[in-house]
Amino acid sequence: MKFHNTLIKWYLQNKRDLPWRKTTNPYPIWLSEIMLQQTRVAQGTPYFLSFTAAFPTVFDLANANEEQVLKLWQGLGYYSRARNLHKTAQTVAFEMNGIFPDNYADLLKLKGIGEYTAAAIASFSYNECVPVVDGNVFRVLSRYFDLETDIAQPSAKKEFAALAFELMPKDNPAQFNQAIMEFGALQCIPKSPNCFECVFNNSCAALQKKKVDQLPVKSKKTKVRNRYFNYIVAVDDLENTIIQKRTAKGIWHNLYEFPLIETDKVEDFETMAQQINQQFFQENKIESLLEFNEESIIHKLSHQHLHIKFWKANLKGTIENGIDLETAKTFPFPIVIHNFIEEKL
User: Fold this and answer.
1) Closest to 189 in 3D by CA, of 212, 167, 169
2) What are the HhH-GPD domain coordinates in residue numbering (predicted)?
3) Which of 25, 116, 170, 305 is in the most buried spot, having the most CB atoms within 10 Å?
4) pLDDT of residue 155
């Protein structure tokens, strides 16, 4: 039996009931694909439902302001995805009359849409015969065919896409693409897959050669950088605080935060008290300073580990441009700050 026949039979028996699989409309398919980059389905699904409720059409998303979009995205991480999503919605709505391109080549021209997402939309919406290659597809094909190509290398995607195209039934590429991704997500999982109940256990080369745990081959990631963030939570006589927007490029661009002092290492109380006095609130006397958390909160990003401490500064008088806490909560924050506000303030 051909690879794709076995795969699709498995898919029809085991596929998950996911909302974006019930349509060929490119708008929700695009939303789901952007959200599920770097995000598990279980985590991404509530965001998808919230987004489609708030912005049921591409016009609704295009007409929203960026802060609305970032607030709804809060917690998904990789916030450049949300900013690109918003800009692309505006392009499609205002320059293309709300109609997405109907082919892979033109979809690739849209901001934030790379080869994988363009292939997914072209395939699932328009049944274009183009393979999708994500981490699941790399894993399934590398194990089934015992391919030792380093998937971290740029050339790997071309090699695996060519193989997937060869295997793909040309009369139903959308179903094949869904099936191979689902098989990688549910059956051919990264660690300790149940190979003995796998439909390919008689034909998988990696299983025959006892190499399942060695594939796919992927070279090591970039070295992780440690950064030390000290957030100053000011509270004045009116119980107001102050927040600021991160306008510099880099992590959390255009999200909000408390005034920040970044240090080279974890600093002691005396050093931080001195720095806070020197750098902030010259117009207001700091009456007391305390640590909300003695141990740093370690927030892990793809290439950075942030060691975060929050400091409460009680100020004399009122802060210029201060806002009350309930108003502050309506702004989009990085999830680590949002969680701190919900738990501590």
Assistant:
1) 212
2) 35-186
3) 116
4) 94
243: helix, strand or coil: coil
Question: What is the average pLDDT across 118-136?
Answer: 97
Tell me the per-residue pLDDT of 252-302, one tens digit each, with 9 for 90 and over: 999 999 999 999 999 999 999 889 988 887 778 889 999 999 899 999 998
Q: Quick one: what percent of the chain has pLDDT higher than 70? A: 100
What are the chain's domains?
Answer: 3-214 (1.10.340.30), 225-344 (3.90.79.10)
Integer CA distances (angstroms), 246 to 2, 139, 258, in order? 53, 37, 10
Between the two ends of the chain, the Cα-to-Cα distance in Å is: 61
Rounded distance between C-alpha atoms, residue 45 and residue 23, angstroms: 15
SS (H, E, C) 39-60: CCHHHHHHHHHHHHHHCCCHHH
- Ramachandran assignment for 128, one of left (phi > 0), alpha (psi -120 to 50 degrees), beta (any other): beta
**Is 111 a residue whose pLDDT tops 90?**
yes
User: Is the CA virtual torsion 258, 261, 262, 266 positive or negative?
Assistant: negative
Q: Among the options 33, 128, 182, 287, which is catalytic?
A: 33
| Structure-block tokens of residue 288 | 């007391």
Annotation marks residue 33 as catalytic: yes
Q: CA-to-CA distance for 165 and 161, rounded, in angstroms?
A: 6
The first and second tokens of residue 333, run together, are 């924050």
pLDDT digits (tens, 9 = 90+) for 56-110: 999 999 999 999 999 999 999 999 999 999 999 999 999 999 999 999 999 999 9
Contact 84, 61 (CB under 8 A): no
